[in-house]
Amino acid sequence: MKEVLVELERRRSNARKGGGQERIDAQHKRGKLTARERIDIFLDEGSFEEFDMFVEHRSTDFGMDKTKVAGDGVVTGWGTVNGRTVFIFAKDFTVFGGSLSEAHAEKVQKVQDMALRNRAPIIGIYDAGGARIQEGVAALGGYAEIFQRNVLASGVIPQISVIMGPCAGGDVYSPAMTDFIFMVRDTAYMFVTGPDVVKTVTNETVTAEELGGASIHTVKSSIADGAYDNDVEALLQMRRLIDLLPASNTAPLPEIEVHQPIDEPDHSLDRLVPDNANKPYDIKELIWKTCDEGDFFEIQEAFAKNIVTGFGRVEGRTVGFVANQPLVLAGVLDSDASRKAARFVRFCDCFSIPIVTFVDVPGFLPGTSQEYGGLIKHGAKLLFAYAEATVPKITIITRKAFGGAYDVMASKHLRGDINYAWPTAQIAVMGAKGAVEIIFRKDLGDPDKIAAHTKMYEDRFLSPFVAAERGYVDEVIMPHSTRKRVARALRMLRNKDLENPWKKHDNIPL
Ligand code: HXC
Question: pLDDT (tens digit, 9 = 90+) per residue, 142-199?
Fold first, then answer.
C-alpha cells in the first residue's frame, strides 16, 4: 500500500508541475499566475476537487507521442465559493500553450456536463493558443462539442469566462456564448485572428492590445463586461459576482443577512434632480442609495455609459439595476445602450433576478449614423427584452420619460409590476421646445405666443400627473423614500407568478 501511495503522490506532484518550472517562471515574469494558482485564489481554501489530472493527449503526429504532459493543458474540477458549489476549468499555458486537443476538450466537456447536471455555475479561465495545431480536426471537433454544451447550458446555469492571457481562434467562441466575459488589463487579449494574420490579409498593422486587449473589448466592441488590473483582483471580483448569482434558473436567489434598515429616508435624494431640466446628475448615486450598503457590481461600466447596468442587493437579495445615465449623452437611448441593457435584462429574466429600472431618458438618439447602424432593430431588442421578461419589474421615473423610450423602459404597458414616478418626472411624447415648434408652427414668428404655448405644454404634460391620472404610474413617490418603496415592492412581488405562452423559443430581433 505504501508504494502505491508514494507512486500516486509522485504522479500527482508531476502533474502539478504542468509544463515545468521554466515555463511557470516565464508565466510569473509576465505578471500571470498559473492555472492552479488561479483556481486556488478563486475557490474557498482547500475546496478544490480536481478531475482528470492524469489525462494525456492521444496524438502521435509530429512526434507528439514523445511529449505527453499529465493534465494536457487544462485543470478542471469543482469547489466552492463562500460555500456554494462552482465548476471550473482553467487553461494551463505552460502545457502546449494551453492549446486545445481532443483529450483537453473532453476534460472541459466533462465539467460542463457536470455543472449542467448538478445545476451549478461554471467558470472558465482562458490563457491559451487556440486549437492544438498538431491535432487538426480532432481539436476542431473538440471545440464544437464545447460550444454545443455552452448553448444547452445557456439560461440554465450561469456561465462566466475570465480571459487572463491569449485567447485566440477557437478559444474565443466558447466565452462569447457564456453570460459574462471579464479580462485582465495588459495581459489578456481576445481575437479570432491575430496581428500576423491581420497583416497578411488586410495589410493592417496592429498590436495584440490594439486588436483585442481589454481596452478594446470593454470600451469599443463590448465583448467584455469588465476588466481588472491583475489576476488576483479579477479572481476576487469573480467571487463577488458568484455570490450575487443564483446557482441555476430554478434555484432561489442567494440571500445574505444585512443590517441596513430599509425605512430610513435619504433626504439627499430630494435634491438629486437639478432644478434645471437640462442639467445632468449621476444616476449611480440613486443606485448606490437604493441597494444595500451601496454595494453595486457594475456590468459593462466602460461601454455605452449612457445606460448603467449591474447587480446589487436589496434586503440581502440580488436585484438587477438598469438606469439611464443623464451624465452621458443626457441618458439618450442609442444602439449600443439598447443592446447592452437588453442583454442584461435577458440575463436577469433567465435567472429570476428582479429588475429595478430608473428612467431619465430624452428619447432615442436621432441621426444617420444611428439609423444606418440599425437603431430600430437594436432599440427593439431592449423593448423585446423588457416585454418578454416575467421577473418582478419595478420602474421609477426620476425625470424625463419621452417618446418611445418611455414605452421601452419597463413601462406599465410592458407588464411593469410597480411603476413609480418622482414629482420631478416629465412623461410626454417629447420635450416642450420640440412639441411647441411642431403643434404651433404657425406661431413661430411670435415669441409671446410661443412662450405661452410652451408654458401651457410644460404645465400640462411635463409632470407625472397625466400618466398618474391614467394609472400608468401607480404612485408619485417622494425621492427620499425610494429605497423603502423598492424594498417593499420587491417583498410584495416575491411570489409573482407570470408565464409567457408556450413557444419553442422567441425570435428576438438579433
Ligand atoms: C500547439 C501551441 C499552440 C497551438 C502555442 N503553442 N499555441 N502548440 N498548438 N495552437 C505552444 C508553442 O509551441 C510553445 O511551445 C508554447 O505553446 C508557448 O507558445 P509561444 O508562442 O512560445 O508563446 P507566446 O510567444 O506567448 O505566444 C502565445 C501565442 C502564440 C500568441 C498564443 O503561441 C500563437 O500565436 N499560437 C498560435 C495561435 C493560433 O494560431 N492558434 C490556432 C488558432 S486556429 P513550447 O514547447 O515552445 O513552450 C483555431 C481554430 C479553431 O483555434 C476554430 C474553432 C471554431
Answer: 999 999 999 999 999 999 999 999 999 889 999 999 999 999 999 999 999 999 989 9
169 is an active site residue: yes
Amino acid of residue 20 = G
Which tens digit of pLDDT belongs to each residue from 347-405?
999 999 999 999 999 999 999 999 999 999 999 999 999 999 999 999 999 999 999 99
Q: Tell me the mean pLDDT in the region 4-28.
A: 95
Going from the Cα of 73 to the center of ligand 1, the distance in angstroms, rounded, reads: 12
Report the SS3 class of residue 401.
strand
Catalytic one of 155, 316, 374, 404: 404
Is any ligand 1 atom within 6 A of the Cβ of residue 26? no
CA distance 486 to 262: 9
**227-260 tens-digit pLDDT:** 999 999 999 999 999 999 999 999 999 999 998 8
Q: CA dihedral in degrees (163, 146, 13, 10; nearest 10)? A: -170
pTM of the model: 0.96
Enumerate residues 6+ apart whose C-beta is below 8 A from 308: 283, 284, 287, 298, 321, 322, 323, 324, 325
CATH 3.90.226.10 correct for 2-244 = yes
Residue 64 has pLDDT above 90, yes or no: no
Q: Is 169 in the pocket of ligand 1 (CB under 6 A)?
A: yes
Q: Give me the half-sphere count of Cα atoms (radius 13 Å) on the Cβ side of residue 137.
A: 0
Q: Tens of pLDDT along 274-306?
A: 989 889 999 999 999 999 999 999 999 999 999
User: With contact defined as beta carbons under 8 Å apart, do 184 and 232 qualify?
Assistant: no
Contact 300, 226 (CB under 8 A): yes
Q: Is 323 a catalytic residue?
A: no
Could you give the CA distance from residue 273 to residue 255 in angstroms, rounded to a whole number?
32
Asked if the domains 2-244 and 267-425+463-495 are classified in one and the same CATH topology, the answer is yes
C-alpha cell at 188: 489578456
Q: State which ligand 1 atom lies nearest to the alpha carbon of 128.
A: 32
Q: For ligand 1, pick from 99, 150, 172 the residue to mutate: most ligand atoms within 8 Å of CB.
A: 99
Ligand 1 and 18: CB distance under 6 A:
no
Rounded to 5 degrees, φ, ψ at 319 are -135, 145
CATH of 267-425+463-495, one of 3.90.226.10, 1.10.3300.10, 3.40.50.12780, 2.60.40.10: 3.90.226.10
Question: What ranges do the domains of the chain cover?
Answer: 2-244, 267-425+463-495, 431-462
Which among 297, 382, 312, 389 has a CA at the least distance from the CA of 352? 389
Give a three-class secondary structure readout of 165-201: EEEEHHHHHHHHCCCEEEEECCCCEEECCCHHHHHHH
Q: Is the pLDDT of residue 487 over 90?
A: yes
Write down the catalytic residue from 98, 165, 169, 312.
169
Q: Report the pLDDT averaged over residues 108-119.
A: 98
Task: Give CA–CA dist 215/209, Å, rounded.
Answer: 8
